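Entry 0007
Protein: peptide-methionine (R)-S-oxide reductase
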Amino acid sequence: MDRRRFLLAVLGGGAAFTVGGLSAARLFAGGKGTGTTAAATPAASPAQTLLLECFSDDDGHNLGPCNVRKLVLTDEQWHQRLSDAAFNVMRRNGTERAFSGPHEKPNSKGMYRCAGCDTALFDAATQFDSGTGWPSFWQPIAKQNVIQGNDTSYGMVRTAISCAGCDSHLGHVFDDGPAPTGLRYCMNSVAMRFVAFRVS
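Output (structure tokens):
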């Protein structure tokens, strides 16, 4: 009798686990009204927890370190979340055409967040006109919120910049920027969204 109860419990628990796993990773992977089925969308890898710097939308105040789950999505889910142009840049390491996006320094105080996961990336106070046609900054809002990596495409050696919150490609950093850092974080407009501070 104990063995029968044990087997029933294992089989029942396994079925519940499978259904729960599908509902979390696949059943709701498609957007609203997409008609996407569980079998059509492969499950994304489990997300890890990151320690990033968080900032207030009110005035850009540094809220300190916070635990954030890295956003891990399938290509299909990224396509639903991003425009075609943003998907090409952020998930395929593309580059938008110069002067094609909003690149001028905004008149209001604010910051730029990742278009994919909302991680705080740059304070508008560090933005400058580089004349390149892409938004340029002399430092990120927090070093741990961005990731540097080697980019050897097109026969060049460059330092690529990605969002730490979702591994999305943002642009590159060069050593021809202004003081105080001498750096130029050359970003793609479509990879970011500007948030104007609510309190000046």
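Curator remark: Helices lie at 2-27, 75-81, 84-92. Residues 1-44 have pLDDT under 50 and may be disordered.
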